[in-house]
Amino acid sequence: MAEVNTGDGGEAKKGKPKKHTLRVDFTPMVDMNMLLITFFMFCTTLSKPQAMDLILPTKDEVKKEDKNKVEDTKAITVILGEKNKVYYYFGKPNYTDPNSLALTNYGPQGLRKMLIERNAVLVNRMRKLRDLKAKKQISEDDFKKQSKEIKNDDAGQVVIIKPTDGATYSNLVDVLDEMQICSIGKYAIVDLTEGDKYLVQNLETGGSLSKQAASK
Amino acid sequence: MSKVKTKKHSTFIDMTAMSDVTVLLLTFFMLTATFLPKEPVQVTTPSSVVDIKIPESNLLTILVSPKGHVYLNFDRPADKLAILDKVSQEFKIQFTDKQKKSFLSQPTIGVPISALPKFLDMSVSEQDEVLKANGVPSDSTNNQLKKWIQYGQAVNENLKIAVKSDQSTPYPLIKSVFSTLQDIKANRFNLITTLKGMPAV
């Protein structure tokens, strides 16, 4: 196929040049094509980034009776501080005790450990579900449906995320990520209140603000 | 005496057929490859364990640079043209055909609307330079970001919004974009992230 016959097909006469078959070696071309294919294959699959779904509450005023109250035992408030610090408290804040607010970090031993401990019921159910999936006992669709059910279970914790002005975008994404990892289906991003600022300052100054308030 | 001649076999393998196949595959991959649009600022998106891919089409990407510049990218050229018509109606700016063409070829929207005609008259390389220093105004007094998104939603009702930003972007800058989105009731949107492995829980 890759040869071009330059001869005229007749018998070679004396004095005439010998028949040459021109052969083109396609091997380097195939090499180059394969290389390009590899490049395009990687480009198409890797260029597509992932997207995290985020639903924010509406700004419309919610009527008081419509607001659903979160039980104190289930609520976790996470405050994203500056310099990759995370503060959290459970239930209602205690403004007199500086140690009601705890400081942690974004690492697996910090925030994640705390959330998994608090949300142990759902995390365990998720684990069982993942095992089933790993053993191929349930289909992908069933897995998605059931994991959604688990996340929306009433036994789950409710996390309130309050980023301060010192937090960065990656802090926010990290915390939203922990919600995925720790199977928390109910979370909200809420603005920081004055009370929360006070709590953080109180902890940073070692409780001097609450001491001042007590002495008054 | 006659010698016994052994016939020489050439080891030449015909690669033409193989070459045909590879070229075919190459064409396929080249045509299906979607290239990322050119962006005025390079951002490193944060990583997350979420493995949902971003929607294929009807996507509005809002790029927030670490300094707080906001850039927009509508992925459908037809939408862009309709949006530009709306802009020219509301802001009483007439765009020439050449400017419209330039608007289509420039993937990023990133200048105040008043500066748009002048911006569109520039060459592509000049435009890229101007984009770096500008951005769509998104403060409360002159919130053109809101306008652009509203035009986009009016033109294409299936428009999905994705926010893309650098890891180091301070939260207040992101918050202002989020609150603009909340204002126009676009409460559901995507954050663009890169994939990292799910840790064992």
Brief summary of the model shown:
The complex is a heterodimer of chains A (216) and B (201). With 216 residues, chain A is an alpha/beta fold.
Question: What oligomeric state do these chains adopt?
Answer: heterodimer
Radius of gyration of chain A: 32 Å
Largest sheet of chain A: 5 strands, mixed
Structural class by helix and strand composition of chain A:
alpha/beta
The spatial strand order of the largest sheet of chain B comes to 1-5-4-2-3
Count of DSSP H/I helices of chain B: 7
The main sheet of chain B comes to: 5 strands, mixed
List unreliable stretches of 5+ residues of chain B: none
Please explain how this structure is put together.
The complex is a heterodimer of chains A (216) and B (201). With 216 residues, chain A is of the alpha/beta class. Chain A has a domain at 72-119 and 156-215: Nucleotidyltransferase, domain 5 (2-Layer Sandwich), CATH 3.30.420. In chain A, 42% of the residues lie in helices and 17% in strands. Chain A is built from seven helices and eight strands, in the order E-E-H-E-E-E-E-H-H-H-E-H-E-H-H. Chain A has a five-stranded mixed β-sheet with strand order 6-5-4-7-8, with helices on both faces. In chain A, strand 4 (75-80) and strand 5 form a beta hairpin. In chain A, helix 3 runs antiparallel to helix 4 (140-151). The mean pLDDT of chain A is 75. With 201 residues, chain B is α/β, with parallel strands linked by helices. Chain B has one domain. Chain B contains seven helices and five strands; from the N terminus they run H-E-E-E-H-H-H-H-H-E-H-E. Chain B has helices spanning 16-32, 77-91, 97-105, 116-121, 124-133, 144-155, 171-183, and strands at residues 47-48, 59-64, 70-74, 160-165, 188-195. In chain B, strands 1-5-4-2-3 form a five-stranded mixed β-sheet. In chain B, strand 2 and strand 3 form a beta hairpin. In chain B, helix 2 packs across helix 6 (144-155). Chain B is elongated and about 105 Å long. Strand 3 (50-55) of chain A pairs antiparallel with strand 5 (188-195) of chain B, so a sheet runs across the interface.
